[in-house]
Every structure is written in C-alpha cells, then in structure tokens.
Inverse folding.
C-alpha cells in the first residue's frame, strides 16, 4: 500500500520534480570583446579627432551588465589627442538580432595638447559619459556595433570639456545563457 501511494504521489508531482533537467554547467553571463573606429568631435577648438577604441561587455542578467571602454582619438595634423578609460553599467534589450542599449560610464580622460606653440601638455581629468547604441548579431559569435557617447570631463579649464564620440565596431561574442532573444535561421 505504501509503495502504491508513493508511486501515485510521484506521478502527481512529476511536473514539478525536475531532477537534473537544468544543466548544471550552464553560463550565467554573456561576454563580448571588440574594437572599432572612433570619430571624436571635441569642443576644444571645435576639432575632430579620429582613432581606435576597444570595448568589452559582461551581461550578468537578461537586461543588465557592465561595460569597459578605451578610446584613443588623435588629430592627424598635430600631437593633440584625447584618450579615455571608462567603466560602468549598461541596460539592454534583445529584439531578434538587435540589442539596443544605454550606458553610464565613469573614468579618466587624458588630453595631450600644444601649449604656447611649443610645450606639449599631457593632463588627466575625471570624466563621466552617457551613451547608447545597438549591437547587431551577424552570426552567433559576431556582433557589429554602432555606439554614441557624450562625455563630460570635470575640472577641465576653463569650463570643462564635452567631447562626443561615435564608434563603429566589431566584437566576438562568447554566447551564454542570457541571450534568449537571439534567433538564427
């Protein structure tokens, strides 16, 4: 009698008893690492700089993650450049192959410029950046990115520095368990 009651209970609750139906070694995050071409429009003398950037994102939930960015944009006619190192949070959504995102980053900006015609100054400032863009999944392991970033460099004399950057890049995507919105045919 005990065995049949136990068997009946097991059948009734079989849907909620999954045992090892969930893989024990599944990833809980998504990682991508990439680089791109940077166009930097600076409000220092209204100049435009061109350069390269490197970025990495680590998504630790279906919509939230972290991002690390590095940009190096140089004036081709002088030794002037703007270089930034940033880290912060990001929020993203997945719509098929598109993953639009918004980000808020904090970091350090280095400005190299000519002073009084001959002296080269290299000064660093704390900076904050807001931005957004989208990643497009070309293949399950390859993303193309379009990114916009508005930076605010604190205490840059006389009134701060606010460069705007556009990055077009490509990243290797290490697939994880969070990208449920990505479907490939």
């Amino acid at each position: 009698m005990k065995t049949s009651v136990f068997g009946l209970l097991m059948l009734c609750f079989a849907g909620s008893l999954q045992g090892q139906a969930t893989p024990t070694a599944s990833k809980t995050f998504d990682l991508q690492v990439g680089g791109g071409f940077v166009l930097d429009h600076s409000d220092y003398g209204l100049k435009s700089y061109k350069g390269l950037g490197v970025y990495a994102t680590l998504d630790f939930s279906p919509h939230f993650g972290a991002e690390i960015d590095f940009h190096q944009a140089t004036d081709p006619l002088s030794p002037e450049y703007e270089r930034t190192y940033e880290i912060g949070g990001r929020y993203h959504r997945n719509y098929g192959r598109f993953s639009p995102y918004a980000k808020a980053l904090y970091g350090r900006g280095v400005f190299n410029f000519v002073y009084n015609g001959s002296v080269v100054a290299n000064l660093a400032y704390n900076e904050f950046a807001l931005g957004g863009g989208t990643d497009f999944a070309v293949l399950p392991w390859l993303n193309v990115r379009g990114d916009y970033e508005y930076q605010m460099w604190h205490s840059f004399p006389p009134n701060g520095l606010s460069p705007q950057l556009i990055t077009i890049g490509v990243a290797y995507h290490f697939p994880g368990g969070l990208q449920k919105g990505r479907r490939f045919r």
Q: What stands out?
A: The beta strands are 30-41, 48-59, 64-74, 81-92, 98-115, 119-139, 142-153, 164-174. Residues 2-12 form the longest helix (11 residues).
